[in-house]
Design goal:
CATH topology of the largest domain: Rossmann fold
CATH superfamily of the largest domain: P-loop containing nucleotide triphosphate hydrolases
Helix content: 25-40%
CATH class of the largest domain: Alpha Beta
Number of helices: 11
Structural class: alpha/beta
Distance between the termini: 85 Å
Number of strands: 13
Order of helices and strands: HEEEHEHEHEHHEHEEEEHHHEEH
Strand content: 15-25%
CATH architecture of the largest domain: 3-Layer(aba) Sandwich
Length: about 350
């Protein structure tokens, strides 16, 4: 007796799915449609997790501009499309970065088909508003939510139930905004998380509701993009951006001084090697300075090494970066009296290298 293939609509009483034969099950398959080839698929919801200051916003603005222009995002070619950006964490900072990013890409902000929603608002209550605002301009390919915490409507960021509801609410934007855009939500990891634990806050519930979790980790001025925890799709090699401090004629204080801001610039292997070479030279110079006087303040260390800003002020962030790297490699350690002490490992390096006494720019 032949087997009859009963394929019909879901049971109206239960809404349970019907049975499908093998052929019927695969008949509706559509191959992946990539927004960024090998990285981001259309109609998927992703997170990008990184600690504060690790470069999430810089990378996200770079992605927004690349999609608007149809240019590669790092090594991944993008399909040109319209972008919306929820700027909830610091709209003024994002304005500054966006102006500088456009200049670096050699375009005017008027040429970028990116639409911003500045400030925090309850997404759960704004569906009709978002639909009207986006319908007015057409279909969108990408939406960026900066950040997850800015639009969290629950009471406890570490609550599984509330984070699952939050992630599901964000995913609904795929159906609200015309075009079925890819979504990327910038997220913070648990407090005191290291680079091996860059998962969104929420005890795994938020992660379970997204299709992949990209990560952004910072070493010196180099931000690396990869993934952790979950990623639906083929694996991809980590890729990097340099976080570069830049100025722009439109970005000035009320008394006319240029205000620096930060943008992300794709990093070639050659440029990365040069940055690392300079960083090592700076670390060597600082190690030598600490061996002479480890109790000196950060500002004084910068002055002694000639590390000064364009205004002639001590470049303290440069000292902090070198200190962080020296501590990671156990070449220095905090002293009880304040400042830092060169470890026995650091002393052996100084003796072996016989580092010349010179200042590094």
């Amino acid at each position: 007796m032949a087997v009859v293939d009963f394929e019909h609509k879901p049971d109206p009483a239960t809404n349970f799915p019907p049975r499908h034969s093998s052929a019927a099950f695969v008949a509706g398959f559509r191959p992946p449609d990539y927004l960024a080839q090998g990285l981001l698929q259309r109609r998927f919801s992703y997170s990008m997790t990184g600690r504060t200051g690790a470069g999430k916003t810089s990378a996200a603005l770079r992605l927004a501009a690349c999609v608007a222009l149809g240019r590669p995002f790092g090594p991944h070619q993008t399909k040109q499309g319209r972008v919306f950006y929820f700027a909830g964490e610091n709209p003024d900072d994002i304005r500054m970065r966006w102006i500088a990013q456009a200049q670096h890409l050699g375009v005017s902000v008027d040429e970028l088909d990116v639409h911003f929603f500045p400030g925090r608002f309850p997404i759960s209550q704004a569906a009709d508003h978002i639909r009207r605002e986006t319908d007015a301009v057409g279909e969108f390919s990408l939406g960026i939510i900066d950040t997850s915490a800015s639009y969290f409507e629950g009471k406890d960021e570490n609550s599984n139930v509330e984070q699952a509801r939050h992630a599901a609410m964000i995913r609904e934007l795929i159906g609200i905004v015309p075009g079925g855009p890819t979504l990327l939500t910038l997220a913070h990891p648990p407090k005191n998380a290291g680079d091996d634990n860059l998962l969104p806050r929420g005890g795994g519930a938020f992660l379970a509701e997204v299709d992949g979790n990209l990560t952004c980790s910072l070493t010196g001025t180099v931000a690396e993009i990869h993934w952790q925890g979950k990623f639906r799709g083929p694996d991809f090699a980590p890729f990097k951006f340099e976080l570069r401090s830049v100025t722009h004629e439109q970005l000035k204080t009320s008394d006319g001084h240029l205000m620096p801001t930060v943008i992300a610039k794709p990093l070639t292997d050659e440029a990365e090697a040069e940055i690392r070479k300079v960083a090592l030279a700076n670390e060597d110079a600082l190690l030598q300075e600490l061996a002479k006087n480890g109790s000196t303040s950060v500002a004084e260390l910068a002055r002694n090494l000639g590390w000064l800003s364009v205004k002639g002020e001590p470049h303290k962030s440069k000292v902090h970066r070198a200190i962080t790297s020296l501590r990671k490699t156990d070449l220095i350690e905090p002293s009880r009296s304040g400042g830092y002490t060169v470890t026995s490992k650091g002393e052996k390096l100084l003796e072996k290298a016989k580092l010349p006494e010179k200042k590094v720019a």
